[in-house]
Each structure stands twice: as C-alpha cells, then as structure tokens.
Amino acid sequence: MSGYGDGAAGDGPERTFEALPPARGRGFAVTWWGQAWLRALEGSALDGEQLKRGRRCARGGAVGAVSVRPGRLTAVVADPDGTRHRTDVLLQRFGPAEWDRFLGLAAAESGHIAALLDREMPPELAQDAAAAGVELLPGTGDLDPRCACGEWDHCAHTAALCYQLARLLDRDPFLLLLLRGLGEHEVLDALRERSASVVAGAHGAARRAPGVDAAEAFAAWQILPPLPEPPRVPAGPVQPALLDVEAEPGEGLDPGAVEFLAEAAAGEARRLLAAAVAPGHEAQELRPERSFADDLVRLAAAAEDVRVLARLAAAGGRDRPGLARAVRAWRYGGPAAVSVLEEAWQPDGEPAARARAALAAAWADEPGGPPALECAGNRWTAPDGSAQLRLDRAGHWWPYRQEGGHWEPAGAAETDPASAWAVLGDA
C-alpha cells in the first residue's frame, strides 16, 4: 500500500454515474453521509447566493453524468439557455500518513472493520477519523472549483456539481474515500491485510498463552478465502424439453398450455439465476413471495396465445380487458403496481400526513403551485377526470390516465408526486 496519496488529482480509479433526474419537491440527500456532505458544503461556502443558484440548477436536472476519481469531481453542467460548461471540483487527497491513521483506526474497531468488509460506511467512522485528525468531509477552502464559465471562485455550476454528489453519496458513501484517494477495493484490501496481520499475531499469542483477546478472535472470522467463481448463465433463451407429440394428451390437458408453462418456468429460472450471480446480489433485499394472482399476471405478460390468455383471465377472475390492464401495470412495477391498480385504501394518521406534506412540497418551487386535485382515499384525481395519482402503502406515487372509461396505468412509481404527475404531462 505504499504510495497511496501520491500523484496529481484525478490519477487512479474512476467511477462514472449517469445523469440523475430532477429532484423537484424533495431533499437532495436522505442518508447520513449525503446530509453530512451538504452540511459541510453549506457550512464552508463563502457565497450563499452561488449555493442557492447551484441548488436550483441541480434540482432542475442540469448536471450531466458525474465522474468521481481521486481528488476530482467532473461533470458537464447546462445553463437555462442550454450553454454547457465543463465543471470540476478538486478535493485534497489524503497522504500516506493520513491513510495509515484512517486504516489503523478502522482496523482497530471491530465494529468498523465488520461494517466496511460488509460494504457499509458507519457514520461513527467519520467522527472517529476526525478525532484522529483525518477529516473525511471538506472544510472551509477545501473544495477547489474549476469551471469553463470563467468564474474564479465557486459558481452555480460547481455548486450544482457539489449538490449532485450528495445524492450519489446516498447510493454509495465509499465515493468519499475515492475522492480522498483510494477506491473501495483498495480500502478493503488494505483492511484485509491489516486484519490478517492481527489474526497472525493472535495465532502466535495463542501458542504462547492459554487465551486469545476477544477483539482479535472476533476479527478472525472476517478473514475468509474468496468465494469461487459463480456459475455461468446460459446464453440466449432456455428451451424446455419438448412434449411427446405422438402420445395422445389426457382428458382436459391442453398441450399448448403445458408447453407455455414449461417455457415460462425455464425463462423464470434463467432470470433468477442471472440475478443470483449478478454483482451485489448478496446486498439486495429479499423480495416477498408472489401470490397466485400475481403469478397469473406474470404469466399473462409473457403469453401470446389467445387461448392461454383466456384461461389465465378466467383463473384470475378477470375479463380480458381487465387482465390487459393488470399486465400493463405489471410491466411498470410488478406485484406492487398490480396492487395499486386493484386496491383502494384510506390513508389515515401518519400516512395521510406524509402524503399531504409530499403534495405540498412537490410543487413548492413552481410559480403556479400544485395542480388542483380531488382526493378520494389514496387517489388524487384531476377535476376533468383525465388524470390521477395513486399512493401505495410504501409511500410511492403512481400515474394513471382515463382511457375508454377505465383508469389505465401510465408509468412507474415515483417517490414524489410531482415526478409522477410529470409523466402524465409529458405523455
């Protein structure tokens, strides 16, 4: 690990993130790391007006793809008139001594090393690092702006880029370590090396003494050999075994329906295998089991034979148009979207208060304020009856449109109502 922290800003590993959608009606950060970055940014800035302009710029979606590498943030930021500016923000990289202190304190705390090896960044790590003289978050004058617009100090473009990083830190707080000089894999490899040394020392002590220190013993279980390579996912669609076409089908057996079920099961098995071996799968939350009704809709989404569709509709107690609406909802959001299509509920207490607050905040920056919507339970409808927002029990908003006397799903779920409403306006 010698030499980490050496070199010019921008040398080393790099990660690039696609442009994020506008953040109208919502905060820029929801996790501790994202909010801590914003507090550091707003507490160290000299020009509050530039920060306000940058916040509006980032909220409106003017920041393009963001590149994060040691010592440097880069993006192209657009003005309201469409003029685009290459924008960079530099942050001092840690030197070898700072990295040595940071890695030492992380390895010394069993809770810190366990969290980091599980790809988590505990907030206490920033506080312990600061106490050791290693400031992860920027202070006054630490952010060095460089923008093609010609401003000598922070401008709206560099401020917008800094605000956008807060949203990225919500997704992956390891980006802050990358900015300071080391990528995630380098940090974890260094911690494993230090932990291995601790374990080796513990083994030697065990041969000389009747006991082993509890912290050292706890750290030992983190040092595991790497897992073998996952199995390869078959290329292309998986074809199930063909039915024996020479044998007469039994009474009530539809060979076409059986072949369809076999093909759908093979496709689902391939999808599950691909998801299981995908990077980061172990960190994903387990999805709840699907109900029989949900599986009928999933199968209908893959069916083309009208006879199969008719049987699926009858099994689910729907008519063909109703099944088509359920399939459309499924394609926007799976079982959650089908539940919103078919379930009406009454938000009371805290869910109702959160919904009212979200509606009030969503259009807070818009001159005309929120659209006039009529509320009935979890459904907010335009006065002319042409458009509707539906709230699910998890707090997500779904756009709906009136077509042919029925409410039709019009898009995927959004976390704020303004974004869901924009889907209806764009269409």
Description:
- This protein folds into three domains: 15-192, no CATH class; 289-343; 350-426, no CATH class.
- The longest helix is centred in the middle third of the chain and has 25 residues, at 184-208.
- The chain is 46% helix and 11% strand.
- It contains 15 helices and ten strands.
- The protein has a five-stranded antiparallel sheet with strand order 1-2-3-4-5.
- By secondary structure, the chain is of the alpha+beta class.
- α1 runs antiparallel to α6 and α11 packs across α13.
- The model is unreliable at 1-10 and 199-209 (pLDDT under 50).
- It has helices at 32-44, 48-59, 96-108, 110-117, 123-131, 156-171, 174-179, 184-208, 214-220, 255-276, 292-302, 306-315, 320-342, 350-362, 417-426, and strands at residues 15-17, 66-69, 72-78, 84-91, 143-147, 374-376, 379-381, 387-391, 397-403, 406-409.
